[in-house]
Structure formats: C-alpha cells, structure tokens
Amino acid sequence: MTQPESAFPGLLDNIRRFERGEAMQGQVNRGQGY
Questions:
Q1: What stretch of H or E contains 6?
Q2: What is the reported pTM?
Q3: What pLDDT was estimated at residue 34?
C-alpha cells in the first residue's frame, strides 16, 4: 500500500481538507460526494 499513497499524496490531503472545509457547509460535502 505504498504505491497508491505515493501516487496520490496530494489527493489524500485535498480530500481531507475538503472534508474539513466543506464539513461546515455539509450540503456541498454531500453534494460533491466527498
């Protein structure tokens, strides 16, 4: 499980930031499917 993590190091960070940033809105979080 080192290849996928190394392939998307920014993707994981982006998803985590989206979940925390969009979590406040909630609607956007559920609308985007994140």
A1: helix 3-7
A2: 0.32
A3: 47
Q: Where are the domains of the chain?
A: 3-32
Cβ neighbours for 29, distance < 8 A, ≥ 6 positions apart: 18, 19, 22, 23
- Using alpha carbons only, give the angle 5, 16, 30 rounded to the nearest 5 degrees: 120
Give burial (CB, 10 Å; 0-12/13-18/19+) of 32.
exposed
Q: Which pair of structure tokens corresponds to residue 33?
A: 């499917």
pLDDT tens per residue, range 6-30: 556 777 787 887 777 665 555 555 5
